[in-house]
Amino acid sequence: xxxxxxxxxxxxxxxxxxxxxxxxxxxxxxxxxxxxxxxxxxxxxxxxxxxxxxxxxxxxxxxxxxxxxxxxxxxxxxxxxxxxxxxxxxxxxxxxxxxxxxxxxxxxxxxxxxxxxxxxxxxxxxxxxxxxxxxxxxxxxxxxxxxxxxxxxxxxxxxxxxxxxxxxxxxxxxxxxxxxxxxxxxxxxxxxxxxxxxxxxxxxxxxxxxxxxxxxxxxxxxxxxxx
Length: 227
Ligand SMILES: [Fe+2]
Ligand SMILES: [Fe+2]
Prior knowledge:
Layout: H1 9-28, H2 34-69, H3 71-100, H4 104-143, H5 146-160, H6 163-176, H7 179-192, H8 195-209, H9 212-222
Helix pairs in contact: 1-2, 1-4, 1-6, 2-3, 3-4, 6-7, 6-8, 7-9
This protein binds fe (ii) ion (2 copies).
């Protein structure tokens, strides 16, 4: 594996975790449990929203830059995103259709179809993320040195990742990432979220997810004042 900077790897980890957990949730759901079906709908809505945003961000921000480097690869990549946006909309519709159906036997069939459809989407999307971390990233690495890749990533975060989006995704990022990646996420949060939101996150979700010893290590590494 290349030791060059790869700006697709870290953001994909939370999305992989999100899809894996959703596979489990869809597979295990009880068609008679109205509350669980409502919670599933909310989870799918969150997942499809944040992933559609990820697709659009990649297409609209990195897409034109890749087109300059490799037009054919860029065209294929953007077409994948368009296709996935349709699949994400279909996933939302299929999920809502389960609770709208009142007959349990019919719900069972709809859930079985939803499970198959979702697993096929995940298989396709895992391959898509590998393409981004591989062939697409290699095109950027061939054109730019690592300092320039870091600058591009910082510009992307500044222009496309709002403090709100960052706050919304922080729990997933922290749960999906290892200690080194968490340190990177904290540095992004510190740079991109207002001080009061940053303090809330550090005292809430961060303290709940990250073990105390690891948190102290990351704080020291980043030069934060001790909590
Ligand atoms: Fe993508
Ligand atoms: Fe991606």
